[in-house]
């Protein structure tokens, strides 16, 4: 059983989100979205854990800046100090689509606010598309990865991160 409409409204308000209609449909069917490690319940899980899921992408990029000398030219000249680099990254992240945690390190972009957004696996700056949409993602989680040849919607910033990894869309 999934979440009620009222519960979904409470969740979205609490976390300052708007769930696309396909995610709403899925959350009304299942709670949590997947079983096993990385699964969580928007209402019953520790809010600190949920906040950590929102923070994970930014923190992962910070890790790669500090330990792997990552710096994209699009971010402008690289500041000297690590704190200044993180602050510049914070400015960059303020303008990118929010990622809605799904399970583990799988995320759905909140923008564009429409159904059919891809699901990304986010681990530091190693970003891959793990499903062309929510249904494709669930299939891959259950059956393993396969390239179904489905078109992948372009998502500002996150699609560029995939290209920088030289990963398939």
Overall description:
The chain is an alpha+beta fold and 169 residues long. The protein contains six helices and four strands, in the order ααααββββαα. The longest helix has 22 residues, at 47-68. The radius of gyration is 16 Å and the shape is globular.
Secondary structure topology:
Elements: H1 5-14, H2 21-29, H3 47-68, H4 82-93, E1 99-103, E2 106-109, E3 119-123, E4 126-131, H5 134-143, H6 158-164
Antiparallel strand pairs: 1-2, 2-3, 3-4
Descriptive tags:
12% strand, single chain, alpha+beta, 6 helices, 4-stranded antiparallel beta sheet, 169 residues
Short description:
The protein has helices spanning 5-14, 21-29, 47-68, 82-93, 134-143, 158-164, and strands at residues 99-103, 106-109, 119-123, 126-131. It has 169 residues and is of the alpha+beta class.
Mean pLDDT: 94
Q: Please describe the biggest sheet, giving its number of strands, its sense, and whether it closes into a barrel.
A: 4 strands, antiparallel
- Rg, rounded, reads 16 Å
- The string of secondary-structure elements, in order, is HHHHEEEEHH
Strand order, biggest sheet?
1-2-3-4
What's the end-to-end separation, in Å?
33 Å
């Amino acid at each position: 059983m999934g979440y009620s409409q009222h519960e979904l409204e409470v969740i979205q308000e609490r976390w300052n989100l708007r769930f696309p209609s396909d995610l709403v449909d899925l959350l009304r069917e299942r709670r949590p979205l997947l079983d096993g490690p990385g699964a969580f319940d928007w209402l019953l899980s520790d809010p600190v854990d949920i906040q950590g899921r929102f923070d994970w992408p930014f923190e992962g990029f910070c890790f790669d800046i500090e330990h792997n000398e990552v710096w994209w030219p699009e971010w402008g000249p690289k500041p000297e100090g690590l704190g200044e680099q993180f602050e510049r990254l914070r400015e960059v992240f303020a303008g990118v689509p929010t990622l809605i945690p799904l399970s583990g390190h799988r995320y759905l972009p909140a923008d564009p606010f429409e159904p059919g957004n891809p699901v990304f696996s986010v681990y530091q700056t190693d970003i891959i598309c793990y499903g062309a949409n929510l249904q494709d993602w669930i299939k891959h989680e259950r059956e393993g990865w396969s390239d179904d040849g489905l078109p992948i919607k372009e998502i500002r910033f996150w699609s560029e991160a995939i290209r920088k990894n030289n990963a398939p869309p």
